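User: Show me a protein chain along with its predicted structure.
Assistant: Here is one chain, sequence first, then structure tokens.
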Amino acid sequence: MVYNRISQLRPFRLDTVAAIIGLLLAVGLLPLRLVASQIYLNTVPFVLGTACALYLLALYQQDTTTALPRLPRPVAMTLPSIVLAGLGALVVLTVLQGARTPVYFAAASVLATLVVVQILFTSEEVFNRRLLLLQIVLFALVFRFTALYATPGYIGIDVWTHMEFVEAIHAEESLSAISHDKHYASPFYHLLVVASSLLLDVPLRLALYLSVGIVMPLSVLLIYATTNLLVSERWAVLATALFALTSHVSMWGLHLIPTSLGLVFFLAILYALIRVMRIEYTMRDFSLLILLSVAIILTHQVSTFITLVLLLAAFVAQVVFVIGPFGLTRLDTSVFRAKKPVNLIGLVVFNFGLTIFVWSLTPYREQSFLATVLSFFTQTLEESAGFLNIASGSTGDDMAADGGEATASLLEQAIPYIDALGFLFLLGATFAGCLYVVHRRRAEQSVFTLLLAAAIMLIFVLVLPMFGIRNFIPTRWFAFLYAPMAILGAIGIRTLARDLSPGVVVAVLLLVALIYPGAMLFAVESNAENPVFSDQHEQLAYTEAELAAVSSIGELTGGPDGQDIRPDQQLHTDHPYQTVISRTGAYPSTTTATVPDDGTADHEYVVYRTTQSTDATYFNDENGEGRIEQVSQDRLCQPHHATVYTNGEVTMCAPSPAT
């Protein structure tokens, strides 16, 4: 009866069927939260169901009689000045407080909300895309560089290793300095930093910030250029804001490693790829794609693999439109310009061929990179893969998401959902955008490429980890995934804003404007150098005293090679502090200390820092599992230990000669 009633209102078509299937799938996924406790199992079904319900409501409501509310002209004209003044205040606040504090993030959230409000609620007469893009880029620059300014060393873990490589190349003036490492075959990031240092005559740290650090915020403009090939300026600007505010994109603007530069090249490839599908392209356009493909292959392996996924999605979209198994042959020219599908087989073959060739020559763990990765993947499939065998990461994000401890406070249980809230908002908008573009009259190779790319990447990010497969490093995928999600999300919000009744539209747009920016900025990835919830997330930056201790430990011990250190001489401390000690070469054989629950560590050489007693740091328990544990100095340094170094914040303990 319901089926007949709906079909009488509007004949069923591909997007309608997809929305109904999505609703049924959301209902079918609900019982999984009873089988396993995982944040995405608990939330994604609700997000999917809500997006499908809103889309169906937009299809059948047919109530667009009232225009949407717009900001008064004086208010709309004043908001840009308020945002620009607020960005200056963020800089002053960072200088005065010496760090990005919760007050900083609250103020930044308000400013980001004001930017999104301008995009969504200004009239056509007042809407100024250039001024809005300027605000978005300046916000991205200020948000990232205030963190870089306030942090004595580097933010993150891998950056210490990469800067060691950069220093070695700079000192030896040759790539042979890193010939033992896999980055020998993908050195573009390291060469860029060295070249920037030489050309600008600045230290390597500043060269990193003036090269990769500046390029990262500017690269968000590629999202605008890509989206504007599909929809009007307002929604292209919205896609840019959605992407620029995302937590993982912010993280790679703080933790500046080859992944950051790989993301820039990925965005450029995405733009060039959509461009050749939307215009009458020339060989110059394809040459640009080939050049960018070579650049990303020489920059970062994970970014290269993600790019291959994008190209595979584009090729599948081509096959869909050439063979036409779904009858996707007609286009609504009022939505997308009709254009014959672009033949991408040559580009795909070139990328796969060059990637395999380079990876076969890349050294990694005494084998080639390709052989090592395949062996790791095979081992995972044989030993640990299984349905709902949810693998946890090495840090607290997944552990906190478990939520199984009855003693956890309400805030501790809520923090994982706060971290994921922005992603879930964008995911819901993406679902709506996907439903819109599968309409037979709107289907086109470019939007299907975005849809398939987002779908495949979501499988790597959300689905495979639920089967215990994390070999593809899913946390590295989010920033890349946010690119097609931001574009499709803007299309989805545009669809709902155009077709829903004004009351529902205002509610949806206000939720996006008021919640999404703050959720993304308060997520742990956006504040890794000084976490808002410092008792639940580890700090991936260090104080002057902690960095001075690393240098002093290296001088004290003579910085021995790893092979010269006996197992009983291994240095133990918390994670992530152990990473900076080992990665800088101060003491290569450094690992996470084992501290039993309510017990003491049993190690000969340990390093204690005051942060271990106040904030979130990781130690192994007696079973070798990592968990947050706040420890006092006497739980690491035992009575038989002697203090061989201390500076007030960091203490190194070693066996006393008297014992």
